[in-house]
């Protein structure tokens, strides 16, 4: 089975929180989309690996994605090692995605920025035919970076107005993370505040392109646009 898009996250729920609306939109448009979670989220203050596995499965169903895989790398211990690269390369070669969506290269949580560099290097090495670790060499042609709470100027914004409600439903599948439990009460904001914050962020990115809700992305590589007049934008 070939995927059009593979989104990679360190933890179960990273994809839903940062680019879930875009994933749902791609599915709505008929693309085959997969999500690869690197860890089981077992080091999180709230919930267990088992609970989060169930929640991730429900969220996958909600988003309508083709495939969701987990690499079982250690949570709070993601590292850019050859062994971890080979695990990702195995997935890239098996599913041959044209586009890979990975975390922004800086961040507060080390797992996030380490996932970024690990994924980038895996995409590169996956294209080397002399790397004999099984499977046909494959290098995705486009790598884009999703943003969490970075104050960085995005390269482009996807309008997720139609998908926003479903994105929130997918996030709410993670009941262990987004309900007001006693665990970590002094660290985490109340769930409703988190939902409001996510909505506010989506509203800001939406407003930049003259839409209600948006999700922001960065690209390091210059991207080709075939017809310049198809670029959308709002001069605000
Ligand atoms: Zn995370």
Keywords:
6 helices; 37% helix; alpha/beta; 236 residues; binds zinc ion; Rossmann fold
Characterize the main sheet. 7 strands, mixed
Question: What distance lies between the first and last C-alpha atoms, to the nearest angstrom?
Answer: 43 Å
CATH superfamily, called what? LmbE-like
Question: Which sequence of strands runs across the widest sheet?
Answer: 3-2-1-4-5-7-6
Helix count equals 6
| Count of β-strands | 7
Query: What name does CATH use for the topology?
Result: Rossmann fold
What radius of gyration results from the CA coordinates?
A: 17 Å
Mean pLDDT metric: 95
Order of helices and strands: EHEHEHEHEEHHE
Q: What is the annotated CATH architecture?
A: 3-Layer(aba) Sandwich
Bound molecules: zinc ion
- Shape descriptor: globular
DSSP strand (E) fraction? 15-25%
The top level CATH class name: Alpha Beta
Structural class: alpha/beta
Structural domain tally: 1
Low-confidence stretches: none
Helix content: 25-40%
């Amino acid at each position: 089975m070939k995927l059009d898009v593979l989104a990679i996250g360190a933890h179960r729920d990273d994809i839903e929180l940062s680019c879930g609306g875009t994933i749902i939109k791609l599915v709505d448009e008929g693309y085959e989309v997969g999500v690869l979670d690197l860890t089981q989220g077992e080091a999180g203050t709230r919930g267990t690996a088992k609970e989060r596995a169930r929640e991730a499965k429900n969220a996958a169903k909600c988003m309508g994605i083709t495939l969701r895989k987990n690499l079982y790398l250690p949570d709070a211990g993601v590292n850019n090692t050859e062994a971890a690269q080979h695990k990702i390369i195995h997935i890239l070669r098996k599913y041959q995605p044209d586009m890979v969506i990975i975390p922004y290269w800086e961040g507060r949580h080390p797992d996030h920025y380490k996932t970024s560099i690990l994924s980038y290097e895996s995409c590169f090495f996956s294209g080397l035919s002399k790397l004999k670790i099984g499977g046909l060499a494959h290098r995705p042609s486009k790598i884009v970076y999703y943003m969490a709470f970075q104050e960085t100027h995005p390269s482009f914004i996807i309008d997720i107005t139609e998908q926003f409600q479903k994105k929130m439903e997918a996030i709410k599948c993670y009941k262990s993370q987004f309900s007001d439990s006693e665990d970590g009460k002094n660290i985490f904001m109340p769930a409703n505040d988190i939902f409001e914050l996510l909505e506010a962020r989506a509203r800001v990115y939406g407003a930049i392109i003259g839409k209600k809700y948006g999700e922001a992305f960065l690209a390091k590589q210059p991207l080709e646009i075939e017809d310049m007049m198809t670029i959308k934008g709002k001069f605000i």
